[in-house]
Specification:
The complex is a heterodimer of chains A (115) and B (116).
Chain A (H helix, E strand, L loop, with lengths): L3 E4 L2 E5 L4 E7 L7 E6 L6 E6 L5 E4 L2 E6 L4 E6 L8 E12 L2 E6 L3 E6 L1
Parallel strand pairs in A: 2-11
Antiparallel strand pairs in A: 1-3, 3-8, 4-5, 4-9, 6-7, 7-8, 9-10, 9-11
Chain B lengths: L4 E3 L2 E4 L5 E6 L6 E8 L3 E9 L2 E5 L6 E5 L5 E5 L8 E11 L4 E6 L3 E5 L1
Parallel strand pairs in B: 2-11
Antiparallel strand pairs in B: 1-3, 3-8, 4-5, 4-9, 5-6, 7-8, 9-10, 9-11
The chains are: A mainly beta (115), B mainly beta (116).
Chain lengths: 115, 116
């Protein structure tokens, strides 16, 4: 199973609040889990990523929590700001052969941070 | 700016036609990936090239094909276009970092294809 399930589909958070986006996967061959941020009219951009041997990674206001046994990972955005309003994609990487890797993306979460 | 360029930015065409989308990867990146993004399907991986060779195929239709040239730019060819092919098409390039076994994909700004 290559699927990555992401929830919620959309999220509205007040400024200063915590935004939480969850992802789940089945394929235990996934070995790297990046999150991408996409603003309207732009391509996705890497936000933060984690390897499965780590349970948490924090970069500024963004934190990934990873639960290997449950095959779940989540993005937490602390002190959410209107500028964080964007679509967020979780992804999972698997080796696809011939020295190459392939990303499988969740369907995205549209985050709106209201003042 | 990711360093990945894509042309054209917008493309409007009719059903049954053929179009070519172009991508120039970041300097030094050997891998190029193509993705299709539609509202209901999210980001779907189409195909990957590495240094001119096809490396992986995803959900790419037989009407679609791609290639990577010696200067590492890539083209995605879409033929016999259907209404359902209307979507954003993204190209990404990456470099593998052996120190931590990670490879970051850098996405271009995309080409919005509208099939009428």
């Amino acid at each position: 199973q290559q699927q990555v399930k992401q929830s919620p589909q959309s999220l509205i958070v007040q400024k200063g609040g915590i935004s939480i986006i969850n992802c789940a996967y089945e394929n235990t061959a996934f070995d790297y889990f990046p999150w991408y941020q996409q603003f309207p009219g732009k391509g996705p951009a890497l936000l933060i990523a984690i390897r499965p041997d780590v349970s948490e990674k924090k970069e500024g206001r963004f934190t990934i929590s990873f639960n290997k046994s449950a095959k779940q990972f989540s993005l937490h955005i602390m002190d959410s700001q209107p500028g964080d309003s964007a679509t967020y994609f979780c992804a999972a990487r698997a080796y696809s052969g011939a020295g190459s890797y392939q990303l499988t993306f969740g369907k995205g979460t549209k985050l709106s941070v209201i003042p | 700016d990711s360093g990945v360029t894509q042309t054209p930015k917008h493309l409007i065409t009719a059903t049954g036609q053929r179009v070519t989308l172009r991508c120039s990867p970041r300097s030094g990146d050997l891998s190029v990936y193509w993705y299709q993004q539609s509202l209901d399907q999210g980001l779907q991986f189409l195909i990957q090239y590495y240094n001119g060779e096809e490396r992986a195929k995803g959900n790419i239709l037989e009407r679609f094909s791609a290639q990577q040239f010696p200067d590492l730019h890539s083209e995605l060819n879409l033929s016999s276009l259907e209404l359902g092919d209307s979507a954003l098409y993204f190209c990404a390039s990456s470099v593998y970092r052996a120190s931590d076994s990670t490879d970051t994909q850098y996405f271009g700004p995309g080409t919005r294809l509208t099939v009428l």
